[in-house]
Design a protein that fits this description.
Length: 137
């Protein structure tokens, strides 16, 4: 039996239009963590599906050796093949999630490099700064 439990759907970070430096950093951190977590869960799912595919293949051989109806051997082999194919797709999805997580972490570091010092300057001065677009007039 599967140990996977459905979770309520929720976004790892709200898309609220808050583009302040610290808010963007927090959103990127949450997204990266969610992708890292999903990578681990997908790896577990892949291993479970691979194990079940192998188990179904062994069961098909056992059914054939027991001289049962060949229809059951064929159906069990089809289940094994379907699980194996699904496991490959889960592995591909895991790779994509890992790649996206890596890019998210890289984006967070780049964002920090580009805007971290500016945020420090802006957040430590007492005077208010103009809103974006003020000087575009």
């Amino acid at each position: 039996m599967s140990e996977l439990v459905p979770r309520p759907a929720s976004a790892p970070a709200p898309a609220d239009g808050d583009n302040r430096y610290k808010a963007v950093q927090a959103k990127l951190r949450k997204l990266g963590q969610a992708l890292d977590d999903s990578t681990l869960e997908l790896e577990g799912l892949y291993r479970s599906m691979r194990f079940n595919a192998d188990h179904a293949e062994v069961a098909a051989r056992d059914i054939e050796a027991a001289d049962l109806d060949p229809r059951f051997v064929e159906l069990t082999n089809l289940v094994s093949t379907a699980l194996g194919g699904a496991a490959i797709e889960v592995r591909n999805l895991r790779s994509t999630a890992q790649e996206t997580a890596d890019l998210t972490h890289q984006t967070r570091r780049t964002h920090s490099t580009l805007y971290g010092e500016l945020d420090t300057i802006r957040s430590t001065r007492r005077e208010r700064t103009p809103k974006p677009g003020f000087f575009d007039r």
